[in-house]
Amino acid sequence: MDQTIATHAVTTSATAPAPPTKPPAIPGPPSGLRAGHPGGHPGAIPGAGSVRPTGYVFGRAPMMLYWEMTRSCGLVCRHCRAEANAERHPDELTTAEGEALLDRVLGFGDPMPHVVFTGGDPLRRPDLPDLVRAARARGIGASLAPAATPELTRDALLRLKEAGVQNISLSLDGSNAVRHDGFRGVEGTFDLTVKAAGWAQEAGLPVQLNTLVTNETLDDLPAIFDLCPSLGIMRWSLFFLISVGRGTDLQEISPAESEKLMAWLLEIGKTAPFQVKTTEATHYRRIAIRTMHDRGMTDEEIAQTSIGRGFGIRDGNGIMFINFDGDIYPSGFLPVAAGNVRRDDIVDVYRNSPLFRSLRDVASFKGRCGRCEYNALCGGSRARAFTWTGDPLETDPLCPYVPPAADDVAAAAIAAAATAARAG
Ligand code: SF4
To answer: Looking at ligand 1, which atom is closest to the CA of residue 396?
Structure first.
């Protein structure tokens, strides 16, 4: 990555405090720049309000429902959210309970959420093809997030494609075997992942490649990006570490590094032959809006981009996660149970539980995310806010942006009105 790429305007570390409790402390952003445009315009960001969705954008149904079918997995990844291990847990949902879950997905009505079969390693469940077929028979879209183990074979992918899987995700956290296998804990994983991307292409299964962003992978991202075209992927998704599960041993990048990285992602996204997106780093959208406006794009044009279509999606708002034991979370990285599918209706929990409702109501957000003019489009990572503060409604500490204070906005409006009056 070109480290000389300019960041967008951020403000001083004095007004963007590091999270209060949890080490390691995230360093503050570079100082000297003010919120809003460089030069100190404190007012509303042009267009941020006009492309803002209103109300509960995903109040009716999530777009994606992740089902952690099992925590069993042959890998021992250093950042594993699920702290997966070899054995299957006796509390996993059974095949019949899985089918009942799919029945309840129908309760959301059209358009229905797309189901992602994930783990652990979903290939550890012998009933996976049957459950994929059950989803497709109900008209539900199906994606697969397998682990790169010897169970991931060309034949397995062909069988699952035949069962109805529409696309898969693969993980690549290093540009070579030494770096990737070091992360994944098993030798040969890099080679298998590269092979699996080829088998998926052969089977006609589009691939999303997931890459973890930590202070250990940051310098390797350009090399991974260079590798992507040879893998024939449809999307590169950069997952910004949330310190849960085994991921607590790793370190997040700093807010300043995050801003530079996002600016680079926007740059490469202009010409990359695949989509580039971020996960648990929704402030990418703030930077994207600013950049696209600077390029002269209208709000309507921005809304049509792949980034624009993702506006507003975050944990509990467009996303829902079913834990291996049936607990219902806003996402896998925000492990706060709002119910359990064995006793609660997922539609009711998603639409009406206080936790899910508060995650969709930006008026309930606190700190900088609470008063940010981008919060309906971005909203920050609720999972990271929870991890660092214990409160999922707090500020996302990875974002250095400091929204203008209300009195600054009022002063700017008065100044603009006075200037207009003088000009008139
Ligand atoms: S302050 Fe919060 S809502 Fe605003 S851009 Fe940053 S993460 Fe998003």
So the answer is: 7
